[in-house]
Amino acid sequence: MARRGALFALVLLAVAGAAAAEPERASEEASQLQVLPRPLVIELPTEEDAAAELRCASWRMAGEANNLAPWTALPDECAPHVRRYLAGPAYRSDLDLVAREASAYARAAAADAYNAWVFDVDETLLSNLPYYAQHGYGLELFDHLEFDRWVERGEAPAIPSSLTLYNEVRDLGFKTFLLTGRSEGHEGVTVDNLRKEGFHDWDKLILRAPADRKKTATDYKSEKRKEMEAEGYKILGNSGDQWSDLLGYSMSARSFKLPNPMYYIP
Questions:
Q1: Cα angle at 216 between 170 and 184, to 5 degrees?
Q2: Residue 61 phi/psi, 5° resolution?
Q3: CB 258 within 8 A of CB 121
Q4: Which of 152, 146, 239 minimizes the C-alpha distance to 191?
């Protein structure tokens, strides 16, 4: 990304506090500041590749903020941007920050035997990046049969920061519910994959039953959370990569959205 040049020119003018101890230097700097043109202008890139990078960064941010209309594949011009984001340090850093904030919140919660935390599975506990790397990082339209074949291999790696958060939440005494859009037919391979990657001792793994297949993810997951509440649980935390993991009804007291620019599930 740095190789393509800066996305914009940023002029940072600062007068350090140490200047108070150096009045002559501060005066000289102040006089230099006065000759700078006003107003200062942030220049947008003019080269097409830099402009596309900026547009795609804005597109990705709009998606994370739930400001995009429903979409089925990422824009063609944004495939390189999304690939660099997911393969580089920024994606890992974003995941780590979400986990740290969730951890701080969980540690501050009052202990209660009926406190519950809901985790999605795909792109929340387990990563399907190896699959999406072979399918344009979301550029290709989603192929259910092809993805099912990937799931059945049971090779999705853990997201390290999510594994740390999961274990911490368990140690704090939260009931942990894994609420996934995967079908009940994939229960065995999902359990094996999770355990192989270090996830153990969840209280319940909930998968889509045949009766749930035509429901939106928002409706399906809301219904399951309502069932948890009916059993007396207080859902204090919910971690998911899709807004449909978090919104609807019977929402958690606090939700934590993990980044995912590869696909959108309503």
A1: 55
A2: -65, -40
A3: no
A4: 152
- 170-180 burial, b if ≥16 CB within 10 A, otherwise e? beeebbbbbbb
**Contact criterion met (CB below 8 Å) for 217 and 242:** yes
SS3 call for 246: helix
Q: Are 1 and 37 in contact (CB under 8 A)?
A: no
Cα–Cα distance, 256 to 241 (Å, whole number): 8
List all residues 6 or more positions away from 157 whose beta carbon is below 8 Å from its beta carbon: 126, 127, 129, 130, 197
pTM (2 d.p.) = 0.82
Give the model confidence (pLDDT) of 175-200 as tens digits. 999 999 999 999 999 999 999 999 99
The CA distance from 186 to 239, in Å, is 21
Angle at 256 between CA 250 and CA 259, to 5 degrees: 125
Please report which residue ranges of the chain form alpha helices under DSSP H: 23-34, 48-64, 79-87, 89-108, 129-133, 144-153, 160-171, 187-196, 217-230, 243-246
Which of 14-23, 69-78, 247-256 is the least confident region? Answer: 14-23
Structure tokens at 176: 């942990």
Please, what is the Cα angle at 79 between 73 and 80, to 5 degrees? 170
Which helix (H) or strand (E) segment holds residue 236: the answer is strand 234-240
| CA 4 to chain centroid | 26
